[in-house]
Amino acid sequence: MAPATPVVDREAVAATLQASKQRNRQECELKALTQYECQFVDLESNRYICRPFKRLFEVCAGTSYETTAQPTNSADRS
C-alpha cells in the first residue's frame, strides 16, 4: 500500500522551495530509480508489456528531492 500523501499549505510549500534553492548542491548525491509501467496486451493469455521509466532524486542532508524532468522519459511511448 502506498504511503499517505501529506497535505501542506501554501506557506509550507514556499518554505520548502526556498530551502531547496539555498541548499548546497555539492553536498547532494544524485540517485536514480527505474520503475516499470505495465499494460495487458491479451487478458486471455496473460500477456503484458512493461516499459521502464526513470525517476531521479537528489539526496541532500538526509532529505530526498525528486528532480525528474520531462526529457528524462521522453522516448516514444506509443
Folded structure, characterized:
This protein has a domain at 27-78. It has a three-stranded antiparallel β-sheet, with no helix packed on it. The chain has one helix spanning 10-22, and strands at 28-42, 47-60, 63-66. 17% of the residues lie in helices and 42% in strands. It is elongated, with a radius of gyration of 18 Å. With 78 residues, the protein is an alpha+beta fold.
Q: What is the CA-atom radius of gyration, in angstroms?
A: 18 Å
Strand content: 35-45%
Which regions contain 5 or more consecutive residues with pLDDT less than 50? none
Shape descriptor reads elongated
Mean pLDDT: 81
**Lateral strand order in the biggest sheet:** 1-2-3
Taking the sheet with the most strands, its summary is: 3 strands, antiparallel
Derived from helix and strand composition plus strand pairing, the structural class reads alpha+beta
Number of strands: 3
Secondary structure: helix percent: 10-25%
- Helix count equals 1
Termini Cα gap: 29 Å
- Quaternary state of this entry equals single chain
